[in-house]
C-alpha cells in the first residue's frame, strides 16, 4: 500500500519553545493597527474616525519613546537576551521597522482619505484656495499678535550653538538669503509646546491650518530683509523611560532629576518631510547624533496625534451621540449619601456608564463627615484637575488623619504627581511614596468612621485610576463595601506600602507581589482538576495585556486538559490561541470601540458552567504581565457578595464575551479578524458599549436581573 504523499503537519510547539508565543512588541503594533482600523470604519462618525487616527499616532509615539528606545538601549549595551519568541533586540528592531513602515504609510493614506471626507462635510484643511483675503489678513494679525512673540529664529552657524530640540519637539529649517548682500543662511524655528498643533482660521467657515504651515506661510514676517528659498518641517522623539538607581536616597529629588534627564534622552526617531533638503537632513543627523536608520520620511502630515485639535470642531452631527453617565441609583435611594448606601449593601459601579462622581463624593462626604476619623488612598494617576485631591486636602484641613500613597513612577505623570504630593503635604496629608523598586498600582481607598457600635471601615476598590477625565472614556469597575474582612485586608495593604509590614495572611484580598499570582494559579489549577475529573470547567479572562510566560504556559496546560478558556485582551497578547495540540480550547479577542476597555476581571467555573452563580469571580488592578504580578503592588478582590458577583459576571463580563460589533478575534498566526455574526445562526450583532449605554444602572439592582429591569444576557445571543 502506497504511503500518503502529503507532508505531515509539523508538531505543535510546546510551552517554553519560541514558537509557542507571539512577540510582545509586534503584538502591540497589531493592537495599534486595530485602533487605526477604527479610523477607517465607515460606521463611525467622521470626527470620531479622526480621533481614532490621532490616538493611533499618540500610541505610536509612546511605543517609540519607551519600547523601541528600550530595545535600542539593549542593543547598544550588547545585551543579546532573546524575547519570549526567541528574537534578539536587533532582530526585533528589524521586524518592528518593517511593520512600522507599513503602519505609518497606512496612517497617511487614512489621513488623506479623511481629509477628502472632511472637505465634503465643509471642514477644510487650509490651502491658498480656501482662505479668503479677509481671512488671510485675520490670520496674519493672529500670527503677529499670538505666535510671533513666542518664536525665536536661530541662525545655524559656528557663532550660535545648535539649539536643544525637546522630546516630541517640532521645528522648521529655513534656507534664506539676505537681500542686502546675498549671504546664504540656515535658520531654525522651534515651535513652543504651548502652541496648539492646529489653528482654526477666523470666520464662519471651518478651515484649519497646522501650526508648522502657518509659520511657513508667514515666514517673511519672521525674516524681514531676507528671501526664503526653502523650508522643511521635522519632529523629534527621544528615549523617555526613567531609570532609578536602587540606592537613591531622596526619591522626590531623584525623580525631579530623572524627569530633566528624560527631556534630554537620546533621539530615537527623526521624522522629516519626504522632500526635506538632503543637506539640511545631514545637519540634523550630525547635530542630534542620530543614525540614518532612525529617520522616517513622511509623505503627508508630521505628528498625526495633533489631529485631536480638529476633533474639537463644533459639529455634533459628525461625532458620537452625546452621553451623560448616570449617577448610581442605589446611592440616590439614600439621598446621595454614599456611606449610608454602602453601609446597607455592597455596590458595584460600572464606569463610564455610571458616573465617577460617586467616587469623588465618597471622599468628599468623608471629608465633611465629623464622625470620619481617617482616610487612606492610593494615587497612581489623578489628572491635572482632580476633585479627589481637593477632597483629601479638605479632609486634612478639617483635622482628619489622611494618608495618600502617591506613585511617582507613573509614566508620563511623574511631574503631575510630584505637584500633587507637594500640595497634599502642605495641607497636612501624610504622603508616602511606596517602594523604590515596585510601583503601587492598586486602586484602594478606605474611610474609617466612628459609629454607635464602634469604628466601621468603608472601602473602595477600583480597576481604574482616580482620574476624572479618563473615567469618562475608560470602562472600569468601582467596588464599594464595608465588609470587615476586606477592610482588615485593605488596612494591611496600606501598612505594607507605608511601613513595609508584609501581611502574613489576608482573609479575602490577594496582593501582588506577595500572593496574587499564586491565587490566580490556584484557580486555574482547580479548573484543570475539574476538567480531568469530568466536571464542568471554564475560565473567562478580561484584561488589557497578557504577556507573562508563566500564566500563558499555565493556560496552555489548562487547554490541553480540556478547559475552555475565553479571553478578552485589548492590547498585547503573547499567547497563541487555537493552535492544534497547544491551545485548541483557547480563544482570544480584542474589543476596540467608543470606550477604552480597561477593567480586569477573572472568572473561574468552579465546577459549574460559565456563567454560573457558583463561579469564582475577581476584579483586579493587575494585568497578566510579569511586571504586574512580580514588581507592582496590585490587588485581586473576590466578588463574594451574590448581587455584585452576578452583576460583574452575568452582565459586565458576559456582555464583553458576547460582543460582535467591536470585537477582533486573534488567529493562530497573530493576525486579527473582525468578528461577525454568523449568517443564518441565532447570533445577532451585539455592541457591549451600546448595551450598557442604553440599559438602566446596574448598581444596587441585583433583583432587576430577574425582574426584567435590566435585560438578562444569554450565551445564545453571541458568537461564543
Furnish the topology, listing elements before pairings:
Layout: H1 24-39, H2 46-76, H3 89-120, E1 123-125, H4 133-147, E2 154-155, E3 170-178, E4 184-190, E5 198-200, E6 206-210, H5 211-217, H6 219-222, E7 226-238, H7 251-263, E8 267-273, H8 278-288, E9 295-298, H9 308-311, H10 329-332, H11 338-344, E10 347-351, H12 357-368, E11 372-379, H13 387-397, E12 401-406, H14 414-426, E13 430-432, E14 439-440, E15 443-451, E16 454-462, E17 474-481, H15 484-499, E18 510-512, H16 516-532, E19 539-543, H17 549-560, E20 565-569, E21 586-591, E22 596-597, E23 600-604, E24 616-620, H18 626-630, E25 632-638, H19 642-658, E26 663-666, E27 672-674, H20 688-694, H21 704-707
Parallel strand pairs: 1-6, 8-9, 11-12, 12-13, 14-25, 17-22, 19-20, 20-21
Antiparallel strand pairs: 2-4, 3-4, 3-7, 5-6, 7-8, 10-17, 11-15, 15-16, 16-17, 18-25, 19-23, 21-26, 23-24, 24-25, 26-27
Structural summary, described in words:
The protein is an alpha/beta fold and 720 residues long. It has three domains: 146-306, Polyphosphate kinase middle domain (polyphosphate kinase like), CATH 3.30.1840.10; 331-508, Endonuclease, Chain A (2-Layer Sandwich); 511-705, Endonuclease, Chain A (2-Layer Sandwich). Helices cover 36% and strands 21% of the residues. It has 21 helices and 27 strands. The strands form four sheets. Strands 14, 18, 19, 20, 21, 23, 24, 25, 26 and 27 form a ten-stranded mixed β-sheet that branches. Strands 10, 11, 12, 13, 15, 16, 17 and 22 form an eight-stranded mixed β-sheet that branches. Strands 2-4-3-7-8-9 form a six-stranded mixed β-sheet, with helices on both faces. β11 (372-379), α13 and β12 (401-406) form a beta-alpha-beta unit. The longest helix is centred in the N-terminal third of the chain and has 32 residues, at 89-120. It is globular, with a radius of gyration of 28 Å.
Amino acid at each position: 500500500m502506497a504511503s500518503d504523499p502529503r507532508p505531515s503537519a509539523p508538531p505543535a510547539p510546546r510551552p517554553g519553545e519560541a514558537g509557542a508565543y507571539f512577540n510582545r512588541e509586534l503584538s502591540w503594533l497589531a493592537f495599534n493597527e486595530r485602533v487605526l482600523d477604527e479610523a477607517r470604519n465607515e460606521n463611525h462618525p467622521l470626527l470620531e474616525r479622526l480621533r481614532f487616527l490621532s490616538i493611533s499616532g499618540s500610541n505610536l509615539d509612546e511605543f517609540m519613546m519607551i519600547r523601541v528606545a528600550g530595545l535600542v538601549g539593549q542593543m547598544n549595551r550588547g545585551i543579546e537576551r532573546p524575547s519570549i519568541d526567541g528574537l534578539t533586540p536587533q532582530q526585533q528592531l528589524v521586524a518592528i521597522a518593517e511593520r512600522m513602515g507599513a503602519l505609518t504609510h497606512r496612517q497617511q493614506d487614512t489621513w488623506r482619505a479623511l481629509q477628502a471626507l472632511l472637505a465634503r462635510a465643509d471642514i477644510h484643511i487650509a490651502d491658498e484656495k480656501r482662505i479668503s483675503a479677509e481671512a488671510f489678513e485675520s490670520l496674519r494679525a493672529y500670527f503677529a499678535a499670538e505666535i510671533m512673540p513666542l518664536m525665536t529664529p536661530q541662525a545655524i552657524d559656528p557663532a550660535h550653538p545648535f539649539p536643544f530640540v525637546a522630546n516630541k519637539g517640532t521645528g522648521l529649517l529655513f534656507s534664506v538669503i539676505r537681500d542686502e548682500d546675498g549671504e546664504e543662511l540656515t535658520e531654525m524655528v522651534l515651535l513652543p509646546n504651548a502652541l496648539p498643533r492646529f489653528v482654526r482660521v477666523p470666520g464662519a467657515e471651518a478651515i484649519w491650518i497646522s501650526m508648522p504651515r502657518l509659520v511657513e506661510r508667514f515666514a517673511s514676517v519672521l525674516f524681514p530683509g531676507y528671501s526664503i528659498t526653502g523650508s522643511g518641517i521635522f519632529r523629534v522623539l527621544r528615549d523617555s523611560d526613567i531609570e532609578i538607581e536602587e540606592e537613591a536616597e531622596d526619591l522626590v529629588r531623584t525623580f525631579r532629576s530623572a524627569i530633566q534627564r528624560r527631556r534630554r534622552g537620546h533621539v530615537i526617531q527623526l521624522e522629516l518631510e519626504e522632500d526635506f533638503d538632503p543637506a539640511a537632513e545631514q545637519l540634523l543627523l550630525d547635530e542630534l547624533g542620530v543614525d540614518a536608520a532612525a529617520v522616517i520620511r513622511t509623505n503627508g502630515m508630521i505628528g498625526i496625534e495633533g489631529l485631536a485639535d480638529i476633533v474639537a470642531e463644533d459639529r455634533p452631527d459628525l461625532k458620537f451621540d452625546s452621553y451623560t453617565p448616570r449617577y448610581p441609583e442605589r446611592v440616590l435611594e439614600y439621598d446621595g449619601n454614599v456611606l449610608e448606601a454602602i453601609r446597607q449593601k455592597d455596590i458595584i459601579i460600572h464606569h463610564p456608564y455610571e458616573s465617577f462622581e460617586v467616587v469623588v463624593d465618597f471622599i468628599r462626604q468623608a471629608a465633611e463627615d465629623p464622625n470620619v476619623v481617617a482616610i487612606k488612598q492610593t494615587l497612581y494617576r489623578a489628572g491635572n484637575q482632580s476633585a479627589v485631591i481637593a477632597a483629601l486636602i479638605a479632609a486634612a484641613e478639617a483635622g482628619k488623619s489622611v494618608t495618600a500613597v502617591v506613585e511617582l513612577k507613573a509614566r508620563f505623570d511623574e511631574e503631575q504627581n510630584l505637584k500633587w504630593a507637594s500640595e497634599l503635604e502642605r495641607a497636612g496629608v501624610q504622603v508616602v511614596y511606596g517602594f523604590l523598586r515596585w510601583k503601587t498600582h492598586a486602586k484602594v481607598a478606605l474611610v474609617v468612621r466612628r459609629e454607635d457600635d464602634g469604628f466601621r471601615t468603608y472601602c473602595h476598590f477600583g480597576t481604574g485610576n482616580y482620574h476624572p477625565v479618563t473615567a469618562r472614556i475608560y470602562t472600569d469597575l468601582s467596588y464599594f463595601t464595608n465588609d470587615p474582612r476586606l477592610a482588615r485586608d485593605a488596612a494591611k495593604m496600606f501598612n505594607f506600602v507605608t511601613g513595609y509590614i508584609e501581611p502574613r495572611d489576608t482573609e479575602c484580598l490577594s496582593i501582588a507581589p506577595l500572593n496574587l499570582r499564586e491565587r490566580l494559579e490556584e484557580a486555574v489549577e482547580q479548573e484543570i482538576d475539574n476538567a480531568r475529573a469530568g466536571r464542568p470547567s471554564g475560565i473567562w479572562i478580561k484584561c488589557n495585556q497578557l504577556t507573562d510566560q508563566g500564566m500563558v504556559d499555565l493556560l496552555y496546560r489548562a487547554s490541553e486538559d480540556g478547559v475552555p478558556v475565553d479571553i478578552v485582551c485589548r492590547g498585547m497578547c503573547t499567547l497563541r490561541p487555537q493552535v492544534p495540540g497547544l491551545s485548541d480550547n483557547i480563544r482570544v479577542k480584542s474589543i476596540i470601540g467608543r470606550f477604552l476597555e480597561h477593567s480586569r476581571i477573572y472568572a473561574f467555573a468552579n465546577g459549574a458552567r460559565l456563567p454560573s452563580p457558583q463561579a469564582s469571580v475577581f476584579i483586579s488592578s493587575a494585568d497578566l504581565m510579569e511586571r504586574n504580578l512580580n514588581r507592582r503592588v496590585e490587588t485581586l478582590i473576590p466578588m463574594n457578595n451574590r448581587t455584585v458577583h452576578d452583576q460583574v459576571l452575568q452582565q459586565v463580563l458576559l456582555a464583553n464575551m458576547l460582543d460582535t460589533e467591536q470585537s477582533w478575534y486573534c488567529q493562530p498566526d497573530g493576525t486579527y479578524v473582525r468578528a461577525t455574526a454568523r449568517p443564518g445562526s441565532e447570533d445577532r450583532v451585539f455592541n457591549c458599549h451600546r448595551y450598557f449605554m442604553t440599559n438602566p444602572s446596574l448598581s444596587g439592582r441585583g433583583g432587576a436581573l430577574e425582574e426584567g429591569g435590566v435585560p438578562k444576557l444569554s450565551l445564545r445571543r453571541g458568537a461564543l
